[in-house]
């Protein structure tokens, strides 16, 4: 793969231009939920969650993604008020302590609005603005970046016999449609990041193929976020539970970065930041170039 495999893109964050593509950005996962598939209940208190968020920044995260509702199959639906009570104090606590960029992981406009008011800088919507008609207008009004993820169905139905004739082509086409609909709602296309939705409405074979063909998403002209961390497709390959998938995650992260991902969303920030830096060096043809872009 050549050093020009990953195109440069610019997002506006906190009023400043941030260039993606010179090096891989790390998005740390901070779930303040009792039932997330890998780390549910670990950060139940605001103080614990804030400490974890700060630790992720110290370990190399560029963004910390705060989520208050699990998207795992069978997870309980969380009403917006409860989700707000979970995420807003954490975002406020991190922001007051000088944290870097913060993301809110939600499909609900009311939660996104409260999080942005509390200091979040971008919105990560796994539904691609499909679940809440007010989300795209909110993002347009605030002018913040947003991640649009590929997902079919709702959280309960997405894993019921997912079917694709050509997973990479269909994911790309459906993400292009989400971008077009976001633009019609007034969202600046330059503020959109695209996520193929690894493990969402996809079985292990679909997800592995989506990673292998990740470079095809570059044709959509937007930066790519990939989130393979600890997911079930790794468990299927290695026959390991979520907490023991760090090496499998490292392999998947490397494949995503070498395939053109601008951002990787991970639980194990420190180790995956190292993986990304080595991949950046490979893409840049040497460690000096990688250090210069860090």
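Q: What amino acid sequence fits the structure above?
A:
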């Amino acid at each position: 793969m050549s050093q020009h495999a990953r195109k440069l893109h610019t997002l506006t964050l906190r009023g400043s231009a941030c260039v993606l593509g010179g090096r891989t950005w790390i998005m740390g996962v901070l779930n303040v939920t009792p039932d997330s598939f890998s780390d549910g209940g670990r950060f139940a208190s605001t103080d614990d969650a804030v400490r974890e968020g700060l630790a992720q920044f110290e370990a190399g995260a560029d963004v910390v993604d705060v989520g208050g509702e699990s998207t795992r199959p069978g997870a309980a639906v969380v009403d917006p008020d409860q989700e707000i009570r979970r995420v807003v104090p954490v975002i406020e606590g991190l922001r007051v302590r000088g944290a870097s960029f913060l993301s809110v992981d939600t499909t609900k406009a009311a939660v996104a609005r409260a999080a942005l008011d509390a200091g979040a800088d971008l919105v990560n919507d796994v539904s691609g603005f499909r679940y809440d008609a007010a989300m795209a207008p909110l993002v347009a009004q605030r002018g913040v970046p947003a991640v649009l993820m590929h997902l079919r169905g709702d959280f309960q139905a997405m894993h019921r016999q997912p079917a694709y004739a050509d997973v990479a082509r269909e994911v790309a086409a459906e993400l292009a449609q989400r971008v077009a609909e976001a633009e019609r709602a007034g969202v600046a296309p330059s503020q959109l990041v695209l996520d193929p939705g690894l493990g969402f409405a996809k079985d292990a074979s679909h997800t592995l193929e989506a990673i292998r063909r990740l470079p095809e998403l570059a044709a959509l002209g937007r930066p790519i976020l990939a989130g393979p961390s600890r997911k079930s497709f790794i468990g299927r390959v290695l026959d390991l539970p979520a907490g023991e998938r760090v090496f499998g995650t490292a392999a998947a992260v490397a494949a995503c970065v070498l395939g053109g991902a601008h951002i990787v969303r991970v639980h194990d920030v420190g180790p995956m930041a190292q993986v990304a830096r080595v991949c950046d060096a490979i893409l840049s043809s040497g460690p000096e170039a990688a250090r210069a872009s860090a």
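Q: And what stands out in the fold?
A: The beta strands are 9-13, 16-20, 25-31, 63-67, 101-105, 122-125, 146-149, 192-195, 225-226, 263-266.
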